C-alpha cells in the first residue's frame, strides 16, 4: 500500500549503489589497494583524517579543491587517487588548520590557478604568488562563480562584516561560523548538487534557514565533521539524499556525533564517512549517484 515518491526511489538507488560499491570493494579488495578513482568522477571527498578536503571536476577536467586538510601526505594520496595534476581553483572555508594546514605544501607541488577564501581568512596565511579572492555574501547579492562549462558555485555565506557572524570575538566558534558555505551544481542535464558547509555551527546555520531554496541539494557535506554543535536544521533544509561526513578514524572529538547520524538515519539519508570508507568518489550516471569507496 505504500506509495514510493521519486525522492524515496532516488534514495533507494543510492543505497543500492552503495551496497554494490561495498561488495565490489570486498570482492576486489586486494586488486584495488593501488586502484584509482573511477574515470568519470565528478566529486571526491578525500580521506585526510580529521579535516576536510573535497575535489570537484568539470567535464573538461577543470579541478577545484575545497579545503586541504592538515596532512599534506593524506591530501597528496587523494590527489593521486583522483589522478589530479593541477588545481584550477582552491577554496579555503575558514582559518582552522584541519581545513587549510596543507595549503603551503600543496602550493609547492601543485600549480594553483586561483585561490578563494572566506572574507575572514587572514591573507598572510596564503602562500606568495597565488592570486587571492576573498568571498562574502549578502541578502542582496550571492556571488556565483563558474568553474568550467558544467560547474557553478554560489557563495551563500559568510557575510562581509564579521559583526554579522555569530560568536564571541577571538573564539573558535566565530572562526567556524565564518566558514564559506558553497552550493555546487556540477554536470549537464542531471547535475550533482552539493552543499558544503565548512565547520558552520548552529547559530550561523540558523541565518541561512529563511531561504531554504538556496540550500536544497542532493548531496550534503555535513558541517563540522558531524559535530553535535552544528545541529540538524541545516540538514533538514538541504533535504539531501546522500550525506558526506569527513572525520578521522577514532578521533578525540567523538565526530560524528550520534545525534547527527541518528537524525540522518531517521530521515532516510544515506551516509558515507571517510573514517569508515576512506576517500569517496561520486558520479551522476543517468538518474543514479554512483558512489565508489576507496576502502582502507
Ligand atoms: Zn574542521
From TrEMBL:
Task: Outline the extent of the Metallo-beta-lactamase domain.
Answer: 50-257
Highest taxon of the source?
Bacteria
Do you know which InterPro entries this protein is assigned to? Answer: ComA-like_MBL (IPR035681), Competence_DNA_uptake (IPR052159), Metallo-B-lactamas (IPR001279), RibonucZ/Hydroxyglut_hydro (IPR036866)
Coiled-coil features, chain-numbered ranges? none
Q: Where is the signal peptide?
A: none
- Report any Pfam family annotated for this entry: Lactamase_B
What is this protein identified as?
Answer: Metallo-beta-lactamase domain-containing protein
Amino acid at each position: 500500500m505504500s506509495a514510493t515518491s521519486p525522492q524515496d526511489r532516488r534514495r533507494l538507488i543510492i543505497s543500492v549503489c552503495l551496497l554494490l560499491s561495498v561488495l565490489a570493494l570486498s570482492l576486489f579488495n586486494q586488486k584495488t589497494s593501488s586502484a584509482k578513482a573511477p574515470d568519470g568522477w565528478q566529486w571526491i571527498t578525500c580521506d585526510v583524517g580529521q579535516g576536510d578536503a573535497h575535489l570537484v571536476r568539470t567535464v573538461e577536467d577543470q579541478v577545484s579543491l575545497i579545503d586541504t586538510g592538515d596532512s599534506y601526505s593524506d591530501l597528496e594520496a587523494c590527489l593521486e587517487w583522483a589522478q589530479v595534476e593541477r588545481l584550477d581553483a582552491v577554496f579555503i572555508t575558514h582559518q582552522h588548520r584541519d581545513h587549510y594546514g596543507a595549503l603551503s605544501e600543496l602550493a609547492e607541488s601543485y600549480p594553483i590557478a586561483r585561490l578563494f577564501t572566506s572574507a575572514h581568512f587572514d591573507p598572510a596565511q596564503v602562500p606568495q604568488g597565488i592570486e587571492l579572492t576573498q568571498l562574502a555574501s549578502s541578502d542582496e547579492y550571492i556571488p556565483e562563480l563558474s568553474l568550467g562549462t558544467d560547474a557553478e558555485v554560489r557563495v551563500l555565506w559568510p557575510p562581509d562584516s564579521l559583526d554579522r557572524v555569530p560568536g564571541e570575538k577571538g573564539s573558535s566558534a566565530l572562526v567556524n561560523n565564518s566558514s564559506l558555505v558553497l552550493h555546487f551544481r556540477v554536470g549537464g542535464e542531471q547535475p550533482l548538487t552539493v552543499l558544503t558547509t565548512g565547520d558552520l555551527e548552529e547559530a550561523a546555520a540558523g541565518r541561512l534557514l529563511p531561504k531554504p531554496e538556496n540550500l536544497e541539494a542532493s548531496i550534503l557535506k555535513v558541517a563540522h565533521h558531524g559535530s553535535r554543535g552544528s545541529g540538524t536544521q541545516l540538514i533538514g533544509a538541504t533535504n539531501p539524499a546522500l550525506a558526506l561526513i569527513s572525520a578521522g578514524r577514532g578521533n578525540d572529538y567523538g565526530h560524528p556525533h550520534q545525534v547527527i547520524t541518528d537524525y540522518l538515519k531517521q530521515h532516510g539519508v544515506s551516509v558515507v564517512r571517510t573514517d569508515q570508507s576512506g576517500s569517496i568518489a561520486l558520479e551522476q550516471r543517468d538518474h543514479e549517484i554512483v558512489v565508489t569507496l576507496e576502502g582502507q
